[in-house]
Amino acid sequence: MADSERHAGTGRLLTGLAWAVLLLGLWMWGSEVTGGRSGASARAAGDVAAVGRPGDVELPPPAQPLPAALPQRIDIPVLGVQAPVVARGLDGDGAIDPPPFDQAAVVGWYAGGVRPGAAGTALMVGHVDTETRPAVFYKLSTLVPGRTVRVVRDDGKVAEFTVDAVDVVPRDRFDAHRAYGTRRAGRAELRLITCGGIFDRTGHAYTANVIVSAYLTGTSA
């Protein structure tokens, strides 16, 4: 974060590059994201480094998926995050178009995919920083398995997800299916994505991306 703040003018460039590399595979992968296909677990792959693993944490059983509804807000209590959610599509490079930098406290949801709480994998993206300050997902990498993520929906229900993995994915070894594929068939899952790793001064980009995986474990009103 300090690197992007010290190098005025590079924040938009480094974040844009990270989004393009991170999500180019989504454009190529297409319907596999929305179809809820069960993919290989990232923990078995040498190209995905684990930050958070279940370990000794006893995770709750999955809840039954909900009918589709639009997300309105995301809450991550342990991080103090309460952020509005806006629908986003793909940009000209085939990457999810994140919220504008003047909306750094907003989270983008990939509207071409699964709605949070429904069966399959819903994707949300947020900036880690701007040129001058931390952004909505600045502390995302500090999450650990067992933590709760809540998504407020337009049907009046709150989908409650439990984090089961936090991965740092190197940009040069990114595998879209491992990153975005449903970990277990039949579950409602959620991915929260932002930039991570270290700042590469030569390439003017982050070296990796943080991907938080969670699954639906409850519902409240």
From TrEMBL:
Pfam families cross-referenced by the UniProt entry: Sortase
Record Gene3D superfamilies: Sortase
UniProt keyword list: Hydrolase, Membrane, Transmembrane, Transmembrane helix
Keyword rRNA processing appears in the UniProt entry: no
Coiled coil: none
Transmembrane segments: 12-30
Keyword Hydrolase: yes
Taxonomy, superkingdom: Bacteria
Protein name (Swiss-Prot/TrEMBL): Class F sortase
